[in-house]
Amino acid sequence: MNNKTEVIILKNSDYRDADALLNVLSKDYGKMTFVARGIRKPKSKNANSCSLFQQSIFHFDLHEQRSMQSLRTAELKYSYRKIREDLTKQSIASIMVEAMDKIDIEIVEESFELLETSLRFLDTTDNPMALLGLYIARICEMCGIDPYVDGCVRCQREDHLTAISLNDGGFICSSCFNENLHIKKDRSVLKFFRLFNKADITQFPLIEEITPCNYSDIEDILAFFMEYSGVNLRSLKFLQHISNLK
């Protein structure tokens, strides 16, 4: 009774007349689902603390035998204001929480730290695409589906890398390249792909100083995640639309 936990909102869905179902990542309990009663009423005191990717403190009475908990009150801890003022960052944050919502989590503390750290960086960075690429690579690693980037996935040759193969699971060198199976990639795409899969999220301040990353530089790591996790990122469409406009 009288439990509280720090959460990041992963999904907010309408439920009944004025209620909402909240999928959250809790720092203490992992993924949880809350019923937030009356949250869609104009005078709801909890509404602002329960918006997508907000970081809040939830007060509730834990019932371990229930699949859904009932939210009593919520306190906003961090609002990520600068994310909400930028359409590209909003879209990227939506992809981050959707990916976390849809994967199976084994290490709660590591998962929460990854998402929290990524959102903090996203709030201030001028290179948000690079952050998304790094975040998705870390998700792939957590799920055990990270690609092979130490050389050619077919022959282990470390030089003359020229393509990224979704089917083979990593880099392809010029000797193993097959024009019927593979598409050559620009050097910048290959560089970012390896960097995403080698760097830790805490190293992002060094990565963001590199040449700005574009959507084309992160398409392959996104494709790897969706192909090998079986997750379809619905929120990705908006980011694609924004990127096509620029």
TrEMBL record:
<dbReference type="InterPro" id="IPR037278">
    <property type="entry name" value="ARFGAP/RecO"/>
</dbReference>
<keyword id="KW-0234">DNA repair</keyword>
<dbReference type="Pfam" id="PF11967">
    <property type="entry name" value="RecO_N"/>
</dbReference>
<dbReference type="InterPro" id="IPR042242">
    <property type="entry name" value="RecO_C"/>
</dbReference>
<dbReference type="InterPro" id="IPR012340">
    <property type="entry name" value="NA-bd_OB-fold"/>
</dbReference>
<dbReference type="InterPro" id="IPR022572">
    <property type="entry name" value="DNA_rep/recomb_RecO_N"/>
</dbReference>
<keyword id="KW-0227">DNA damage</keyword>
<protein>
    <recommendedName>
        <fullName>DNA repair protein RecO</fullName>
    </recommendedName>
</protein>
<dbReference type="InterPro" id="IPR003717">
    <property type="entry name" value="RecO"/>
</dbReference>
<keyword id="KW-0233">DNA recombination</keyword>
<feature type="domain" description="DNA replication/recombination mediator RecO N-terminal">
    <location>
        <begin position="1"/>
        <end position="80"/>
    </location>
</feature>
<dbReference type="Pfam" id="PF02565">
    <property type="entry name" value="RecO_C"/>
</dbReference>
<comment type="function">
    <text>Involved in DNA repair and RecF pathway recombination.</text>
</comment>
<comment type="similarity">
    <text>Belongs to the RecO family.</text>
</comment>
